[in-house]
Amino acid sequence: MVVIMIFALILFGPEKLPEYGQKMGQMVHKWRRAYTNLQRSVHYPADLVPPSALTDHYGEDLCPNCRYRIGSDFLFCPACGKRLKEPTTNQSVSAA
């Protein structure tokens, strides 16, 4: 790994190396996002069954964004992070 870093430093120079590193990181991020989207589209095809039919058929709550199985008390989807419902605050006012 060190040999590769030294070779890259000699080949690109210290001025361009951070720029190329950032571009490589962005490329890897885009590839991972595309791979995740492909996995979701394979596991959760959007055009086969509407989400309401899935919820009624299985009797489970599903995230409307990614169709991940969630509990009825979840505020956020653990898979995609979408807000599912507003948090309820149980503030009791004590009478003096």
CA-based shape: elongated
State mean pLDDT (0 to 100 scale): 75
Quick one: how many beta strands?
Answer: 2
Beta strand %: under 5%
Strand arrangement across the biggest beta sheet: 1-2
Along the chain, the helix and strand elements come as HHEE
Low-confidence stretches: none
What quaternary form is this?
A: single chain
The main β sheet shows up as: 2 strands, antiparallel
Count of alpha/pi helices: 2
Distance between termini? Answer: 70 Å
Structural class: mainly alpha
**Cα Rg:** 23 Å
Helical amount among residues, as a percent range?
Answer: 40-55%
Write a structural description.
- This protein has 96 residues and is mostly helical.
- The protein is 52% helix and 4% strand.
- The chain contains two helices and two strands.
- It has helices spanning 2-43, 51-58, and strands at 61-62, 69-70.
- The protein has a two-stranded antiparallel ribbon.
- The longest helix is centred in the first third of the chain and has 42 residues, at 2-43.
- It is elongated and about 55 Å long.
- The model has no long low-confidence stretch (mean pLDDT 75).
